[in-house]
Amino acid sequence: MEQPRLLDRLRDHYDRILASPRFRQLATRFPLTRPVVRRRVRALFDLCAGFVYSQVLLACVRLRLFEILTEGPQDTATLAGRLALSPDATLRLLNAAASLKLVARRRGGRWGLGALGAAMVDNPAVTAMVEHHAMVYGDLADPVALLRRDRGGNGLSGYWPYAETDRPSALRPDQVAAYTTLMAASQPIIAAEILGAYPLRGHKRLLDVGGGDGSFLRAAAAAAPGLQLMLFDLPAVAERARARFAEAGLAHRAQCFGGDFGADALPEGADLISLVRVVHDHDDDRVLLLLRAARRALAPGGTLLLAEPMSGTPGAEPIAEAYFGFYLLAMGTGRARTPTELEALLRAAGFGALKLLPTSTPLLARVMVAKPA
Ligand SMILES: C[S@@+](CC[C@H](N)C(=O)[O-])C[C@H]1O[C@@H](n2cnc3c(N)ncnc32)[C@H](O)[C@@H]1O
């Protein structure tokens, strides 16, 4: 067996010291180590209390507190009336929300929006996520059982039914409606990240595979007026996209194709194929089927663009590893991958010339482009 390197041995030693209650007591008393101890205690408490913080946010969203406060600062009694809560319950909620920077105290005993509450205003993406998390938390109520049992059979795997079925093409409109609406709510911020990193210059026809209701393609159409649009998704989803394109007056520029990318050929003719938040939903064997199908469909010299949150993103580790790790476990398939893991899959499917492009908010999405090898 390989000998632990010196750095690893030092780390083990340090961890053993930190784990000792006697050391923690000493470190709390010693002025130089006290601030470090306090920061760690706070970080650990935040981990323990995370669910409670989320539920304070959920209460604010359900009571429409942020919208109410956009009208201007209001006092507790007025807010109690508008929230239909007792004055005591209102004050409890406002104090909790203020501690989380969702609301802020203003002069004269009034309350206004806090920095994070202000970011929730007109933010359907996060608002929809906050509501959706009721289901996520239900599935994670017993995390050890979730880790031990076979995948599937959870609220989330029912919500994303393509994760559980062998015949995703047979999914009915009512089975795809909720997740398609949820994805569309957050797509504008993802599209802004992608189009900021890859402005679509020089492309004639874009095929968005797993394109949902076409929200990404509509953003692409606005950014590149001459671009022709093609969308491939499960038949019931492609039908929704067709209706959205017609509503947006884009029917003449957009073609929608229904099918299963694991079984059916992708439509040909695009010089750019995008996979936006699609690959992380699937296990490696299915991703390879998808990437090979994209490789066959892509015009010679074309480009494949893959965009999603990735593992190994500095500063976003808990989002990829803890959040997506457990979310996708409950959903039943997929995982967040590092750029290196994605690169290996892309190469195995016949792509080369890979580039990871910088995005302005990498924790939301990173963008990788590739060309047929
Ligand atoms: C997480 S959603 C992403 C939607 C959209 N790209 C976005 O970012 O908002 C994944 C999409 O892949 C589609 N999808 C899943 N499995 C599929 C399959 N086997 N064939 C075709 N589309 C599939 C789903 O219907 C869904 O629209």
From TrEMBL:
<dbReference type="InterPro" id="IPR029063">
    <property type="entry name" value="SAM-dependent_MTases_sf"/>
</dbReference>
<dbReference type="InterPro" id="IPR036390">
    <property type="entry name" value="WH_DNA-bd_sf"/>
</dbReference>
<dbReference type="InterPro" id="IPR016461">
    <property type="entry name" value="COMT-like"/>
</dbReference>
<feature type="domain" description="O-methyltransferase C-terminal">
    <location>
        <begin position="173"/>
        <end position="351"/>
    </location>
</feature>
<dbReference type="InterPro" id="IPR001077">
    <property type="entry name" value="COMT_C"/>
</dbReference>
<protein>
    <submittedName>
        <fullName>Methyltransferase</fullName>
    </submittedName>
</protein>
<dbReference type="GO" id="GO:0032259">
    <property type="term" value="P:methylation"/>
</dbReference>
<feature type="domain" description="O-methyltransferase dimerisation">
    <location>
        <begin position="46"/>
        <end position="120"/>
    </location>
</feature>
<keyword id="KW-0949">S-adenosyl-L-methionine</keyword>
<dbReference type="GO" id="GO:0008168">
    <property type="term" value="F:methyltransferase activity"/>
</dbReference>
<dbReference type="Pfam" id="PF08100">
    <property type="entry name" value="Dimerisation"/>
</dbReference>
<dbReference type="InterPro" id="IPR012967">
    <property type="entry name" value="COMT_dimerisation"/>
</dbReference>
<dbReference type="InterPro" id="IPR036388">
    <property type="entry name" value="WH-like_DNA-bd_sf"/>
</dbReference>
<keyword id="KW-0808">Transferase</keyword>
<keyword id="KW-0489">Methyltransferase</keyword>
<dbReference type="Pfam" id="PF00891">
    <property type="entry name" value="Methyltransf_2"/>
</dbReference>
